[in-house]
Amino acid sequence: MLVLSFFFSFSIFGQTPISLQGALEIAESGSPSIQRSLLNIEQYQHNLRAERASLKSRFSLTLEPFSYSNSRIFDNQFSQWFTNTETFSRGTFQVEQPILKTGGSIGLYNTLSWRNNKTAIANLSENSNKAFSNNLYLTFNQPLFTYNRRQMALDELELNYENANLEYAIQRLTLEKTITSQFFDVYLAQLNLDIAKEELKNTSKNFEIIKMKVEANLLAKEELYQAELNFANAQLSIQDNELALANAEEMFKREIGIDLDEDIRLVTELDAQQVLVDLDRAVEYALNSRLELRQRRITIEKSFFEMERTKSMNEFRADVQLTLGIFGDNRNFGNVYESPTSNPSVGLSLNIPIWDWGERKERIQAVEVSIKSQKLELQEDEKQIRMDIRRAYRSVQTQMPRIEIARKNVENAERTYDINLERYINGDLSGIDLNQFQTQLSSKKIDLARSLINYKTQLLDLKILTLYDWEKQEPVSLALIRN
């Protein structure tokens, strides 16, 4: 097992230590992309709850506490003017219950009213009526030969909510990849800075040695000039790496959602352990678990809903309405139903399309083509997933040999630098040549770090592609939000 441990050591006083796992936890609540996904889920959640609430019994009360009118009216039948004065109060209590299974509805209504009506016919007589009345009736409405609109609306909202959850889970996986990438960008920037500081320390030490030898006339002045140039380049390298680190840190802070001015300290440990991956199992698991495939299937399901709506254009349809009730009126409220009158009614309405010039047929065919296209895209997505997993698998298999080679390169570069440093101190090597060996050592250290990071990110890619953590040998927990 190879281990590269790195704890950033720059002025830790007042700094916030952040590990990779800690950064991911912070991003779960602070990342703008995650927040947008959560708000999207919340919106669909409210819509779905509202639709479910609309399927329950709805109670309402309509009141007209007082109404008065006095009007002069001409009766054409009797060619007479008459004056009508009316005062009334009315209230209606109603209970409406949608029927999800059939798409119909049933309602219970009760209208209680009091009316005082007077009619005076010119030069003839005056009629009046003052009484309470109550109308209690039950209605049933049922559409026939058409699709269940209530059920489809509910199913569509449930699919939208599921899709929003899937999008949130995908965002979390994408965020993990983004945060990991930027975390290691900061890591490499700091590693570059530390190596630059080490180079400056070595260059400063070598400069002092060369300076003393030149002053003692043991070396030519040209070596001192080269040593001064190496020292200046080492100082400039520190400034460049400090700038790169500051830029990488700000991008990282923004992505995880913390204040740009917060002083942070990254803590990480890179290891390279051989991880066994079963390619056939990886492909099978991905095809059964990938969220994008489920999203594609949801799109196809919603297209079938669109097909039903399209078929309902210019459709043959019937609506049945049945009403059963009793009506009563009396001057005394307690005797309203002394002589009740039943008032049943049955109604049937038909919508019969005759000719639409082929509009419905063409629209249905358009939706059918769209569904075929979406099924084809689903097949292509499955092929692409297989290709991506195989590519990631092959890449993972090549990483361990690369790491071993990078480690040996660092060991060789360290030995080479130490040998040539002695030659430089003894005056057998020029400053230009030593600087090349120093640069080579720094480059090999960065290469080793990059190899370890590459292995880590390749395993993460395979984890995201298969939704299986091959390091822990367990499925990825998506923790979808439930309604």
Structural notes for this entry:
α7 packs antiparallel against α8. The chain contains eight helices and twelve strands. It folds into two domains: 304 residues, Outer membrane efflux proteins (OEP), CATH 1.20.1600.10; 125 residues, no CATH class. A hairpin with a 4-residue loop joins β3 and β4. The protein is α+β, with helices and mostly antiparallel strands and 483 residues long. Strands 3, 4, 5, 6, 8, 9 and 10 form a seven-stranded antiparallel β-sheet that branches. One of its GO terms (molecular function) is porin activity.
List descriptors.
transmembrane, porin activity, OMP_efflux, 2 domains, transport, Outer membrane efflux proteins (OEP), disordered N terminus, 3-stranded mixed beta sheet, membrane, single chain, 7-stranded antiparallel beta sheet, 24% strand, alpha+beta
